[in-house]
Records
---
Amino acid sequence: MNFAVLVFPGSNCDIDMYKAIEDTIGQPVDYVWHTDGDLSKYDCILVPGGFSYGDYLRCGAIAQFTNVMKAVVKAAEEGKYILGICNGFQVLTEARLLPGALLRNNGMKFRCHQTILKVENNNTAFTRDYAEGELIEIPIAHGEGNYYCDEATLKELQENNQIVFRYEAGNNPNGSLDDIAGISNKAGNVVGMMPHPERAVHEILGSADGKKIFTSILSAWREKHDAAAIR
Ligand SMILES: NC(=O)CC[C@H](N)C(=O)O
């Protein structure tokens, strides 16, 4: 399975993401620069965290206009797996691959600490190795992680089971609507989340609870791939 880690000017979690793929599932992974418009050889595209284009205008607002994001839109339409972490989540909402927007944290402060997440939907390619309702410890590091959408969109997210992760009840670090920490698109092949699983892949990092996101993607892809080979 081939992984791409996108790199924008200002990305700063690209190396962690690359290492997380190497360390957890050992699959081929490349850095892909923002000017590159061809993602055809990749099965999964990872949009990492950071401060793309210095967070000018809004976090993720400029990155959406790059060549590589046009290729990401195409890859999403083709059903490839797309995972946006933190700034990557912000970029995916700006590119309209995911609904809603990320606003400034309610306390107007950059928050950087461990959080407890609840796996709300383990029926996705990104979460199938977790148990439903499993509590996992994953760090956050963001200034604009306050997820917001209108009422109709929230209803749709809830009804279609598109809320993949919530912050533990009573411990919402940024004021996000309905305690949302991560969502998927309707088709389920695009997921965005504010917490950083790529920083939680070894006990020595404080938690290894992020690992199963990467093992899930590989097992989902293998299942699809093997089924296609048999047909
Ligand atoms: N770690 C990140 O990706 C940070 C995202 C963005 N720059 C913010 O502060 O919200």
---
Amino acid sequence: MAFLSVKNIVKRFDTQTALNGVSIDIEKGELVSILGPSGCGKTTLLRIIAGLEREDSGVVMIDGKDCTGLPPSKRNFGIVFQSYALFPHMTVEQNILFGLNEQKHLSREERKERCKEVLNMVDLYAHRKKYPSQLSGGQQQRTALARAISLKPAFLLLDEPLSALDAKVRVKLRSEICRIQRKLGITTIMVTHDQEEALTMADKIIVMNQAVVEQVGTPREIYETPKTAFVANFIGTMNLYRREEKVYGIRPETIQVSKIFTRQEQECWKGIVEDMEFRGALTRVYGRLEDTKEEICADIDSARVSSMNLHEMDEVYFQVPKGGMIAYPASGC
Ligand SMILES: Nc1ncnc2c1ncn2[C@@H]1O[C@H](COP(=O)(O)OP(=O)(O)OP(=O)(O)O)[C@@H](O)[C@H]1O
């Protein structure tokens, strides 16, 4: 039995179905990311797990116990939201102690010690006397994280914890959250619409779309063997071609570009280069196929682009190796 098991959850808001029979299992110590486009039901699922929202039907089991209907305070979660939700009139230290002071089984000294411990963990000890308005966005979010973990919850729920931060701070905080999560071994569920965040941080990704779970898997499984055209298109970049009853997906990095026609055991489509985008080690080549007029994009080693002297408007062959195309039912698109 999984540590957290959500079974067949249905939730409607008036005529809007936010969750339509969602089931997930999360093991102890895992960092699981719920990933999906805006409005697919991620936050509603997280709120139902936390007990902040009541499901219409379905069951939430924690450690083998049915928790359906239990209030949030009885579920032992620490929650970090996108907005840091810190008390503005309290210092960093006071914000953390506020929750800890409710822990009546701890002595005053133990609470202070716990506060110091988590402040060190998020590298904010030197800033403990500052007020939220004197902190950067990243520091405020680290305070919120410290406050959540100070209570030693069984679960940590993160709702878009990095989305309000700028790119550089986001990347740094990503690895900090992972480090702390691994160190504490705390079972963590993180909602995000950012695929890079999910791919780099999570042990397991739950991809949602339109109130249902589309796929559950490791980041590698989700990226390399997406089960539906939606997942294929949502994670990374995928060239998608509809042919009768099927949709075929091809990752840009599996396509080769050549000025010479070569028929080996592969697809070889004639086309034209329309645009090129230098991205460092790789160059993204945007083209159009001659026969079907469909667009194609390929990621080519920049060194190869130079050596073959590739330019816009060049006539080329886009080659797809055998096994480089994934077929999906057209209905999933
Ligand atoms: N309190 C509510 N009242 C009415 N409709 C709601 C409520 N909460 C959510 N919904 C609707 O339920 C659907 C799922 O919302 P939810 O917030 O779970 O999506 P999400 O995937 O977290 O989206 P986002 O990434 O934009 O936060 C949406 O269509 C939303 O409009």
---
Amino acid sequence: MSVSLTREEVAKHNTEEDIWTIIDHKVYDLSDFIDAHPGGSVVLAQIAGTDSTEAFYNLHRHEVLQKYSSLCLGEVEGEKSEIADPQPGDLSEVPYAEPLWLKPESASPYYNDSHRRLQKAMRKFTDEHVTPEAREKEDDGTFISQELIDKMAETNVLAMRLGPGKHLHGKNILGGVVDGKEFDYFHDMIVGQELARPAARGFQDGNMAGMAISLTAVQQWLWDEELKQKVTDEVLSGKKKMCLAVTEAFAGSDVAGIRTTAELTEDGQHFLVSGTKKWITNGMFSDYFVVACKTAKGFSVLLVPRSEAVETKLIKTSYSTAAGTTYIQFDKAKVPVKNLLGREGQGFEVVMSNFNHERWMMCGGVIRWMRLVVEECLKWSHQRIVFGKPLISQPVIRQKIARMISLAESNQAWLEQITHQMNNMTYAQQSKLLSGPIALLKSHATRCAHDVADDATNIFGGRGLTRGGMGRVVEMFHRGYKFDAILGGTEEILADLGVRQAMKQMPKARL
Ligand code: HEM
């Protein structure tokens, strides 16, 4: 931006037909924009020729200026812009907006340089490629584009979603920022937390969450190596999509109550799967379904390919249909016996051990959201003027923000502690020892999210109830955190699971 203009020159453009204004020491010509302005023409005519910085930031997010940068004529002579202008990949400078380990002055026992490199690359990738599509799809409710899936496949962002493992060995991850063999659960956490930042909760699940929670089960439990490799290659290359189909209209968290059946054919070569599934994330566009069902030997899990015997219908929930939440009917879907995950009758173990990574991932997401909301509240309460003063000058607002910060920080600390345990345990040890702590963390994190959403909405007032604009993130969080509280096991079920796991380990201790 080379043009330099004086405040006197700006002041001359002060009629309805000729509107210039100054925002953050930059000059904008709004003359041709006036009819397109969502806030109407009158308000713009009122500020023609003046500095409207305060009025602007009282009503708009900074990103509005980034989007309409073409309206900017130049800078005010001798003045410099003061408002932070974040670029793709940047860390936020707002206190508590980033986890402590990302602050240059803070030390952490958990993270090394490869974590830092991955965070940087993931932030840039997300800002540039995921966020724009996430916002668009969240609003129009359509599903993720093949173009974005391909980009995530090429860079191995898709593969990272499964967590550490052989599927990452030898892979070029985001241009080589981390060696697949070094990839651990902190890398995994970073990927998940960065992908939550676009603040589009429906799209966040629409962005291959189904794959992230089902291909993990295939990795661990599908015995047929050839089939496992084929499915893994198809899905991680983005050619095929998959989802986890456990819950039913008949049974939610009560997994044992499911009614979908799988009957062996007379020749013993196939199962015929019949029944329904409900609230299945990504089901609409999935080619494979990891299905919990009942066989003659009990609760079992099968990998069911899409066929004419599989019917999928979109369910509208309170977040965007971009998540592809689905009602599924299987009508004698024919599945080879080699598609069994684990042994027949071992389904409970398959589902329960697979839940650990899913729940832990959800904790990472919702905790990152809390932090985003803290950032929104800190920014808003500094820029919003009420009773002639910034909102932050009200002690009651500072009390709310103090609590929100504490909840975000304490949850992140617990998450990191559990993640460290995961790094030092086998899959089997995690299943045995961490299902309780992970369940308790998820239950606790979403209870805290409830408090954060509640306080943030009160801070934002009407804007906290309005989609888009200033309250965009807070409104979405208030509407969206419940998905974390329900999906993958409700708060109550998980709290109970956590205590029951502890009961199993109780010694014969007496007071
Ligand atoms: C570069 C200059 C401006 C641009 C590009 C712009 C753009 C927008 C946009 C996109 C919205 C929709 C809400 C949102 O997405 O945030 C909006 C709303 C609005 N704008 Fe502007 N605007 C500008 C300047 C101003 C100024 C200087 C004023 C008044 C002093 C103003 C008053 C309003 C009002 C009252 C609304 C409705 C806010 C609400 O519903 O809460 N705008 N503007």
